Amino acid sequence: MNDCDCVKGVISRVEGGITEVQRCELLHRVGTDGSLGEVQKGGGIMNEPIGSTIWEFNGVYGFLSNFSRHPVTYQGYPCPTAEHAFQLAKARSSQEAACIARAPTPTAAKKLGRQVQLRVDWEDVKVDIMREVLTLKFMGNPVLVPHLVDTWPARLVEGNSWGDKFWGCCIKSGEGKNMLGHLLTELRETFTAICGRP
What pTM was estimated for this model as a whole? Predict the structure, then answer.
């Protein structure tokens, strides 16, 4: 498989959630050696020691959080964070979606997302939507891709103290499905096909 095939594999997983412009930009950014041309080497995340588990998505690993300030365009709505994009996907109306996209902070977007009338299929599609949003986040901010790849072989856990046992795990008990961590790990494996192992 050549580099172009690897990139097409990443793109095909988004199933229509990526524009032709984004496809072209990603193909342009991937070099012939499979590396991303805009990657900055040295310092920061690249040189951080990796343990067996990354328990929280903050500090040097803050880029893994949906609250990180890395823009995502989702269903035509420019969003300042992945959290905005995920929350607006809950909305039935374009007015509610636009309001969430313009929320001043990811916390405000999350609050608005809890107030909308959920689309009827939300429980069935929310994991696929999160996968799509995460893919768009990393493809739209390619400097993040090698940082994600460099977390290998650590287990990625969205540890939290607010009791989210679906997307993350409770730090005190360690209980939870950790779906966000699993989706990031899945995406890490997909991008490893492009960048290679650290």
Answer: 0.75
